[in-house]
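Dear Dr. L.,

I hope this message finds you well. Following up on our conversation about the binding site, I have prepared a predicted three-dimensional model of the protein together with guanosine-5'-triphosphate. For your records, I am including the exact sequence and ligand specification that went into the calculation, followed by the structure tokens. Please feel free to forward this to your student if that is useful.
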Amino acid sequence: MERFGLVGLPNAGKSSLYNALTGGGALAAPYPFATKDPNIGVARVPDERLDRLAEMSASKNIVHAAVEVVDIGGLVEGASKGEGLGHRFLANIREVDAVVFVLRAFEDDDVPGPSDPIEHLRVVELELALADLETVEKRLKQAERQSRLGKGGLDRSIGDELDALRIAYAALSDGRPLYRAGISADQRALLAPYFLLTARRVLAVVNVGENDLDSIPDAEAAIAAEFDQTGKSAENVSVIGMCVQLEAEAATITDPAERAEMLEGFGLGEGALFRMVRSAYHLLGLRTFLTTGDKESRAWTFYEGSTAPQCAGRIHTDFQRGFIKAEVIRWDELLDIGSWTKAKDVGKIRIEGKDYVANDGDVMEFRFNV
Ligand SMILES: Nc1nc2c(ncn2[C@@H]2O[C@H](COP(=O)(O)OP(=O)(O)OP(=O)(O)O)[C@@H](O)[C@H]2O)c(=O)[nH]1
Ligand SMILES: [Mg+2]
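The resulting structure of the complex is given below.
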């Protein structure tokens, strides 16, 4: 399962957000380093398409897609040199697929620490960039030595890697993280073995106070502008503002109607948690296909660009190995028609072969033999 790590300064609201996302009971407390060992939980990816298909099929069981969320301890200035939870903290980040920055914008006299989200962002970016700089510097020296030893018969792959390392080094020396350094996908792949902290995609959550809900759009814009100074971050970064405290309170209400009423009362619509999980999911290149029947309706995760057999493999490796064909229809088309059998009768189910590239929202059935 894909993993998101929550990263930020102490008291930013990471554990509160973790609890809201996973229904977990992590300690959220108004003192720094309340979290020492990471909390790991599972967040459901809400999906209205799935709910509606399940209703159509009168499914007994509904299974949502899910992601893993890791609540990591707070980071402080000097973390790259071992301050605070330092190295332990950095090791926890290396294990996640995408990073969620939690940036505090709420003011509360009972909760120590700065409440300027830009200050939070600067400290977090600088510490992660410094940690990466150390890794890249070491590897760069090594690679330069290797390429000198290679003399005339310079190994091509080392040459490409050297280029990537030099670009990374230049950006990191400026304190600029790699997600906004304009690194190409090929260069990123060459740097992958070094598990760099800033080479992954970032979703920034700006945690706004419960009395400042009107300021959410401005807070989002300010952080987005900060990220975009170089104009090179667009596809790697996204920003979402919310009041974590209110979202967390709403998340504890189990009755959906009551929860909706509370969020509505604050003018928060469906709430920001759902939007946050969906945008994190999307940012990672994750997409969903669906299966539906009277026993079960289910959302399955696949990577953007996957073919029909690769999607089949998400269900079972046998399905991929013995893949013959996929029967496919878009979720909303199926819903309009009203049932799979009817859709088949009117010839609306497409037959797709092994080269078919799946789309987000496809409903699929696979034919295979083993
Ligand atoms: N007023 C207010 N308080 C909040 C908000 N979000 C979190 N808090 C409070 O801030 C304190 C710190 O929150 P945590 O979720 O423990 O913060 P953390 O980022 O996990 O902190 P560390 O684990 O120490 O790094 C708790 O007392 C929360 O109740 C908010 O939106 N408004
Ligand atoms: Mg915490």
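In brief: The pocket of magnesium ion (ligand 2) is lined by residues 14-15, 34-35, 71 (CB under 6 Å).

With kind regards,
A. P.
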